[in-house]
Fold these 4 entries.
Entry 1:
Amino acid sequence: MTDFNHTNREPNFLEYKGKYKGILGWITSTDHKRIGLLYFYSMMFFFLAGVVMGLLMKYELISPGEQIMGAQTYNGLFTLHGLTMIFLFVIPGVAAVFGNFFLPILIGAKDVSFPRLNLMSWYLYIIGAIIVLISQFIGDGPPDTGWTFYAPYSLKTNTNVVAAVTGAFILGFSSILTGLNFIVTMHRLRAPGMGWLRMPLFGWALYGTGWIQLLATPVVGITFLMVIAERLLGIGFFDPAIGGDPILYQHLFWIYSHPAVYIMILPAMGAITEIIPTFARKTIFGYTAIVISSMAIAFVGYFVWGHHMFTSGMSSTSRWVFSLLTFLVAIPSAIKVFNWTATLYKSSINLQTPFYWAIAFVFVFMIGGFSGLVLGSLATDIHVHDTAFVVAHFHYIVFGGTGFAFFGALHYWFPKMFARVYNFKVANTGLIIFFIGFNMLYFPMFYLGLLGMPRRYYDYLPMFHSANILSTVGSWIMATGLLIIIINLIRARKGSGKEVDDPWDGKTLEWTIPSPPIVENFEEIPEVKHGPYEY
Amino acid sequence: METITHQHHADAHRDDTAAKIGMWLFIFTEILLFGGLFIVYSVYRHMNPVAFHLAHEELSITMGFINTIILLVSSATVAISISALQKNDRKLTMLMLGITLLLALTFLVNKYFEWGGKFEHGMYPGSELMKNLSNGDMLFFSLYFFMTGLHGVHIIVGMVLLGITLYKVKTGAVNSGKYALLENSGLYWHLVDLIWIFLFPLFYLIH
């Protein structure tokens, strides 16, 4: 392994000292790696807060009747849980942390195209987050609309919807600017010799994501502005009492919020696509198919929003069209799964923690995907709409997909970011416990949903009791696994692990440079002569 | 080894093409922002065709028409300013930018009187009069105030951008060899103009 003689190296981005010292040196830095870590630390904070809220809700549901909170508190809590997890964790998610940190390195660039804009995006993210949090404490109490802010309730509730919606609007801005930055970066800063079809697939995933961020986010932005105007000025857009159409609100909301699911999952798939060839010691199967599927998901994903509204009132023609398109969008996702598994065929797999995460991802993502088909078909959707089944489905996709990929990517790139390896045994044990807990937590909800247990209620009928106990206990097991994983990584970060440059023998550009990377990533911009996964 | 500062890190790489692609992408975002409103407009007009038709007669076509001409001319002056700077004619550039800013201001003054007239008659968001309107009228005027208001905000943002550019042309920071900022401000201004080109017929000219 590489000799660690730091005196011969340029300062790495962690120890580098600029104009300012300490925390100021971080929050004024335009270095994409530092910004990636700023996102990382702030997002972990919000994620853990969201986990605690989730645990509290699961505890409330351990048996029928009121346990620790009443209906209004529960309503506020699932709203805040949704806002935090969706807008502050999974939407920026893999792209803001690992995209920022690794995209420029993967394409052989010194930074993104607009480093200052990049820093501004982080500030917008933090400002948006603060406003969302403020909405909890001022005015007439925390919003209780759910993260969807459906009209007309969001127009009528006395709770503090305006602040929460303003926060979400600003977070959208942050997301748009990040997407814009990444797209331009990929157009302009790929290293010499790196044609579009030599770009690592994580880059392609971010490219598709960037376009969704650009073209979908403004639609929800304007919708939120209309909600604000309607609440503050009393002008009519969505309130049926003054001629507005609440269904139109749902359309506008999902025109963004369904593609937003792909903002969450595409970068996650991209990260998995980086992990699998590295540990299969084999080039990725079907590079071009994965590229096309990423772009196809981004494109078709625009036209499926109506499947959130099968029971809201739509013509039967639109319903079957949306249903058909929903089935179509499953195809490119399935293509990726086939490509990942085909990559493993006849490979010599190096069984390591990131690989286990990738496999766990494929497993839970497939359960999430198949249950999505149940919801995408008209007849079955009527039965399980607004039940625990839906909650199980999107947690399998959003948490099981994006969340697992996030931790997979973290375990994969951690040695590159901090030049340390973590304890593999502890990491694997944590993963196994986490995986068991995750499935125990969410799988019973499929069953509960089929039985007819509605979502978003703090109470339920005694017939749902046993599966709910299982689910709540699962939440504790999952939290235990999560704790083990995080403590293990913190210990490694503090320097208990040994120093390494590249523990996996990876082939993409980030593994050709020392760990942690130097400020400008490359001493000399590399020249690329072949595709990204040449084993 | 010499210390590398972050400033150096950020600015060493000047890429005008990137700046321009970035601006175009931002314009796509803006178009979709207004796109959401155009959807809302179409749906409600489809639902209330008569009310929309009658409500639009409350608006002054003359005022709207004058403002349309103002914005079209201002788009031309911005375009001339770019050509002028490419030919290294700083004076003409500054003159044209100045005229553009003046036209933008005139647009806002017109808008002020237009809105002011409505306000005087008790017609403003949240007013008693507006609350008592029929559903179709209410939607029309809600959209009118919201869309022209948001467009007005864009005019102000465009003016700030053009103002900064004018200042930088004056100091020489934007010059015949480095005019990405001017081009981008110009692009943004054209967008603001373009959106008005759609707003004008939708609110003032409908039948």
Entry 2:
Amino acid sequence: MNLDGMLRDKRILVLCGAGGVGKTTTAAALGVAAARAGRKVLVLTIDPARRLAEAMGLKENGAEPTSVPPERLYADGKRGEGRLDVWMLEPRIVFERMVRRMSATESAARTILEHRLYRFLSELVAGVQEYAAAEALDSFLAEGHYDLIVLDTPPSRHALDFLDAPGRLSRFLDERIISLFGPDSGRTGRLWQGAQALVGKVLDGIFGGGFAQEMRTFVAAFGGLFAGIRLHADRLREHLSSKDAAFLLVTSPEAAALREATFFQEALQAKGLPFAGYVLNRSWAREDGLAPAAALKPHANNAADTDAVSALEHLADVEDARAKAHQSLLARLAEGLPRGALAIAAPDAGADLEDFRGLVNLGDALTVA
Amino acid sequence: MLVSGKGGVGKTTLSAALAVAAARAGRPVLLAELSPDEGGPSMLAGLVGAREAGPKVVSAGPNLSFVRLSAQEGHRLFLEETLPVKWLAEAALRSKALRRFLEAGPALKEMGLMFQLLSLLRRTHPDGRTVHPLTVVDLPATGHAMALATLPRSILSLMPGGPVGRAVREGLDLLQDPARTGVVVTTLPEPLPVSETLSLVAELKKVGLPLSAAVLNRMPEDPFTPESRAALERLLETHGPHQGQRALERLERARQARARLAAGVAVPHLGLPELALTGVALVERLAELLESTLEGAAARGREATP
């Protein structure tokens, strides 16, 4: 299967990768390509660069996805059936919605949302962005308005943090921990009560009595949501493990790329998630078909011209060495691929990527590869 | 000295090179890795030849030590220092539920990392001299680093008193003191990374972290004089693009990126050349290049003595 096929068949495309590799741009370009191919597409993105956001007409802190106007999507020709929506993940909004949906009553939801610690939780827990991404993906899948959702995962050191972070958060919300803090654990037994008393002492000692009490009321209120949260996590897991999903690693053409790629493929395999391949971003692996720099020599009329041509020849050598390195990296990425997975080079679009036209071009370049 | 930047810009390599350069210049330096995930192999340890990467400080050569900060170690130190009785701290650390809570609870992990860093910085020799007069911290990629930077304030607004509040206030005092702390932001000479760096610089200012230098990593070599550059423009205009075009465009982007960075930050900015080296060899070469500018940089980097 090529990337074009994936964009037509899949329901979920997850783009993973370290920060700074151009994941968001790639996600946007793939979303554009799929929408232009006729699908209803949502690109879920996190913290896009300002100009990229502007190119897509993305509103900051929007409560709902923004539609890219058809005249922009189809600027160069006939309008099709496809649609492109983009949403910038706002953890605060995702969380608030989740709390409201999962709370039994409006007043139960308010108890959580108005709690002083709520702000703390939604802003500062490591993994909140990742958790919000997972939660948003789950709820858009459940609504079923889109043919394809392209998820741009939060930047991280390791490509798969996105998958682990929700686990970290749900471990915090683990029933056992909650009942340890909660005022009414429902569990008896001397050992358990002993543990509860110990935790109480420790927390009072560390945080001071007032804060520990606050923490208890909050954890108790949040604890009610636990079953729902776990349900969502399980449901999403099922979606992500199915053949409707595809995980792509976006990587930049550097020495570390191979190591990262191996790690990514193995980690996905271990988690039973569908590995779809690599996008080698900003690479010079493709030929540009230009005349050699030396062809300018006969046109050099003076010393400055001669200097200019030899400087360009030098640059062309540098470029060539770089292109060869990228090509060999691409070849090595392609070596260990399972059937159906792909390794493609995305062109180095440089500064051109800051308007919508640039995204269309990049999307086209990726899908014909 | 806190080294910050997005993933993939060479931040870890730069941290290692800064530490190696300082050590060679005769300054005892502690290189600290602050990574949100503490498991897995440590690239930084490998770059400076540290034999192990853990919460224990190990020697990585003359004047150079290495540590990988650990939240768990921080929690242990904190509990031991805070809790009135020893058995309570021990029991607390043995409690599985509490350990899991400390691992996963809001901001507790970051607090643990910060507390270990603080306690390392506080260490003194018997004669009163600080053990680690200069500490280079390799911060996690930008997003996490900002969370770490905004964390102390949020915690203080939640619990101004109590032992946690006190520790956090101490940490904040250290981090915000330009006499003791300096942030080095690292980026690449391309439009997007520079835009992002300029917004990072604005955010650092907002949270009161003192910026001390901006580093543009992997600056491409410029083979032109102003005259030959102008001559090439004329030639290409007449005869169309030739090979070397991509490198030429990249060079132009780098030039503009450097100008934008210089206009956008008030601190010195330093360009490091793109080198055809990787790993330890790259660290060594960058350290040599840094050594020549180190006197200034070290003075700006300040001593991290609390």
Entry 3:
Amino acid sequence: MAQRAVAITAALVLALLTLGPIAAVLVRSGGLGAFRPGDLEALQFTIWQALLSGFFSVALAIPVARALARRHFWGRSLLVSLLGAPFILPVIVAVMGLIAVFGQNGLVNTVMAALGGPKLDIYGLHGVILAHVFFNLPLATRMLLQAWLAIPGERFRLAASMGLSPWGQFLTLEWPLIRRIAPGAFAVIFVICLTSFAVALTLGGGPRATTVELAIYQAMRFDFDLGRAATLAMLQLAMAVIAGMIALKLAPAQGFGTGRGRQVPRWDGRGAVPRICDTLWILAAAAFLLVPLALVVLRGFPGLMAGGGMGTWVAAKHSVMVALASTALCMLWALPLANRRGELLSVAAIAMSPLVLGTGLFLILRPFVNPFSMALPVTTVVNAMMALPFALRILRPEAEAVEQDFGRLRSTLRMTSLAWLRLVWLPRLRRPMGFAAGLTAALAMGDLGVIALFADPDRATLPLQVYRLMGAYQMEAAAGAALLLLILSFSLFWLFDRGGRVGADT
Amino acid sequence: MLTLENLNVVMDGSALTGSLSLAPGRRVAVLGPSGAGKSTLLDVIAGFRLLDSGAVGWSGKDLTQLPPDKRPVSILFQDGNLFPHLTVFRNLLLALKPNGRRASQEDQVRIEGALKRVGLAGMSGRTPGTLSGGQQSRAALARVMLQGRPIILLDEPFSALGPALKAEMLALVREVAGSLGALVVMVTHAPADARRFAEDVVLVAEGKVHLPVATAAFFANPPEAYRDYVGTSQA
């Protein structure tokens, strides 16, 4: 059948694009002998920062999720939705915001200086962890909150009627839940942080704060030592595969569901102390997320009004093109692969780091063309691959439901594949496709990964442009470009998501 | 002639066996306890369920290995007979143009005619969600009419409708099937429906497909397996 052929082709292309670069890296790899002393430190740092990031994200998420689960206040559902925003927030924008709060001349240091306290330095291990917690605290909070709200209200009623003490209730209802969800959340965040590149690039660096991904980049970019880059890529690959397998075992079924506005009626936590504690946690979490973003917007305005700096608009044009092309490619891939096997295949692709893929593609392309001239196409392909697992996770249940609901009707009508695709499948999947396309576009728009490996000054994307402006200490222009990036990312997401919703409510 | 020879289908825990032949143009009710395999029997005829052994044939042609879309069969399901996002017109057009092409002048005339026959004249622009349950059933029946296939299968299609509406629909099916000369096989729970609609009754009970019996004779002297299922008072 034609459909089957399409699905197999899509799967083969994906497999080829995943395995090809790895094969290229393997062939090129200089063997373990090419390690340098610094590489072991990079490995240690990578694991250590990922452990700490996972730990702090989950530990802090517990009180926040608990407070959100049992309090009802104005703006609660908005805050819960906002917890999903970091997922599509460009890393470089978040880093700008965090620097504005915690950096040399940031808010915190200004207050500290006025109080005569010590000066904070955001660069290094704690900066990397801070940024990782910024991104993953909301993720952990959403995972926990979802589980928390799934506790049936009857249990809380029973606990209330039995007169359990707060501690007793925590032990019987909440602690088992934390024990069930927290390890999975930790594992997922650990894996995400293992392959962290942009955060390490901007806030880490130096011998004591280099991740393996960053080391690959440095080997390629500064030393042009392809053998060493290949070896490091193998190391990264092995690490990601092992950690990914562990995470798959531990992870809860739903990684990032839609935020629930639901509220379970609760009878506990009525005293003044728990009230104040919960309020403080919620305020602290909201401030931690919102203040950096607010500062990006505030500080970005002057820069954006002044024209955004040299090359910013060209970079923005590149980024929008890359984002749109990645989205189209990702959707073309996702539609035939929206089933169980396809999802497993794409998870294999996520275990791969973009830098490893980039290195491999670089090695493959080099004999034929100047790889730097291929920067934007390669970025497009890698971004589409990286977004594919998320797109499939959104599309697969819906695609299977359409098949389930209308497959028999299709047979009895003798509909052709093309008619089915055009008249039923695509219209029925409009909403999830809009959402998935929005995520893909925003992720591709904000990506600062493989482009850093390939790019020359003529082919920068907007995130890379922000990074370069920061490196050149043109802070006003950088802030302007960061604001532009933020606006474009969120707009693309909104446009696609909205496009899927309009008129799709039958 | 629709023939089922030495049919054997393994269902979870049990099996469905039997032989059957039904003449073109007959109206046949399939009765029996839930879970006995009534719907499985329809699935076998429609091709949604492949046989573990045995054969299905239609006027000398072997259907056993044919996929559902190659069989001379149209079906009314319990629900989901229309695509909810397409207008009634578009839904019916799919019966004439399974490749999704545009309607020709002739198609338009045929669709409007079919809608008129089922009492939905002027409703072609509506989506199914804006129709009542009875109207949706009528639209689905118009679809079956346009498909014009020699075998029509009904899987408890009107069970969500009230008694009066249901009787009306059965009369309409009878009329449509009569005009097509089609064999109708209807799965039902209600003996009254069988009495009103069917010429023959096929009992499916205890994993066995029984031979068809004329409806009057069936209810005058119900087989024991049927009496066990309905209880003596109703039989």
Entry 4:
Amino acid sequence: MEALILTILLTSVPLIFAATGELVAERSGVLNLGVEGMMLMGAVSAFAATSVLGSPYVGVFAGAVAGAVTAVVFALFALGLATNQVATGLALTIFGSGLSGLVGAPFVGRTVDGLPVFAIPFLADIPVLGNLLFKHDIMAYMSVAFLVIVALFLNRTRAGLVLRAVGNNHDSAHALGYPVLLVRFYAVSFGGMMAGLGGAYLPLVLTPHWSEGMTAGRGWIALALVVFASWIPSRILAGALLFGGITIMQLAGQARGWTIPSQMLSMMPYIATILVLVIIARNRRFALINSPACLGRIYMQNK
Amino acid sequence: MNNKYVIAALGALVLGAVYWMVVGEKSSQVAEKASDKVKVGFVYLTTPGDHGWTYAHELGRQQVEKHFGDKVETSYVENVPEGPDAARVIRELAKKGNNIIFTTSFGYMDPTIKVAKEFPDVKFEHISGYKRAENVATGNIRYYEGRYVQGIVAGMMTKSNKVGYLASFPIPEVIQGINAFGLGLRSVNPDAELSIIWVNSWYDPVKEADAAKVHIAEGADILAQHTDSPAMLQAAEKAGIYGFGQASDMKAFAPKAQLFSSVNNWGPHYVNKIQKLLDGSWSTGDGPDHWAGNDWVGMADDYLVLTSFDNMPADVAEAAKKAAADIKSGKNKIFTGPIKDNSGTLRVPAGKTLNDGELFTTLDYYVEGVKGKIPG
């Protein structure tokens, strides 16, 4: 059971990264549906960099940069040229899947040494909990650290307040003298960096390979997670563990010989997503109070 | 920001990407014109870099080139998804003047049949399916023979009596493999159990690794796979347990974990069929349509080759060698009764051996020792 929980924790890490990043972007009022594309760019770049340069830490960095750069492409269109965010985001996913496949073609079938486990001294010696929580690779700690930082930033800092203001009412924020587009640009880039890190986790920790489309829908689950978390960072952790748990339990169910068809079990994460979306949509006070009012709305800066 | 520059820069980026894709597309297809050679086309599911299924076919193609030299010209298209897209690729190869086209995955079965109707003068060889036509032959390897030997090794090696298996899709060859593994397992260890995880993909390293980790978490100490990447063996290596490679030798990925690999050796089959085409004696064989016909070959002809038996005690290696020899000599036909399914019902009475047709049409159950139920 302990090993199973450990597997679930690791499966959740990419979701925590990507969803936390997207949450920041959405709190600033930008809906970037290109998470899947950014994750794939992060994954392929991390793998390529590690494969060529030999260090998984360089890979982590490359993944973050690639994700951010991909997000900047989105920002140029959606913010700079004020294009429709939904369409641009979808295009970014298609673009990211295609380009990552192209860049990654020479790397198919290669393998790398992934990130080593870094046990935290003393804490790792606690029975059970030590194994589960304090014997991970550095990125797993990073994902939770980022989540905490984002939560503090949004709720406890002035800059976080400005970001939320921009997301809730960009006209008022502009009238108060805040640089709406610049704030959104930073938020989107941060979102891209986090998606890139989430993607990088796949080839650096989960399996030391690159394969086309290896994120397999995790970007979309991350998007759903943001809504699931009703734009509150702490809830992302619970959501990611739930989705990670379903992903792994459908495999474990098969191994245990449950007689539910495996295709049915494979559908579970997606069915859960839809269910959660339906439940959330019906409970406005609980769910929508933190929903950014300007989410997805186009803002044109007056010259 | 000046929008004109942004548009110009993005335009250049898009053009560059398009150019790159066109060039990339070209470089993935080795081929050009020349007249009186036999032109041979291959359709690959993934890339030769998968180090599994497609890599084995690529080695076969290389052997064809080496064997025939100037007399043939080969080309391949990689990363062709199973389904409607495959028909487009196969048609393209036929239009380019290929004389014989090998389509190397189960999912190309219907597209191959469809395109073959449009090109009656071109020969098609579909690997691992069961549909044939005037100009469509089928060929396959008896993978299950190697899996029976794997079952014996697993049964003798396992300490937890739990063996994990990654399966791709519930098609005949995969079910044959699971059942052969189960028969081998139970022939040496009546307490061992085989549990199956369906990955629903041939090549998905993330899911394969996840499934392998789940098997390990559930207590399995030996893993086997009918999927194509080395991800499972790498997970086994990391966890300090053992497993079997698939389709190609995967020792390089897991030197301490790989017990052995069942390697598909396509070269002789391809050489044989192309030689027949050159001689004018190419045919689709005369077996009934629902099974692989005359070209279903296995360990006896070295079409399925087991790599060296590593990381196991001498007595286990000895038993494996003996089992392999018995299969080669035809002494052990594997699917010989009595065979019970996993609910205890007798499916094959003592003394009866399933023939090739029955292997395709009657195996709708798991044998004793395999947990669960065939999906769908």
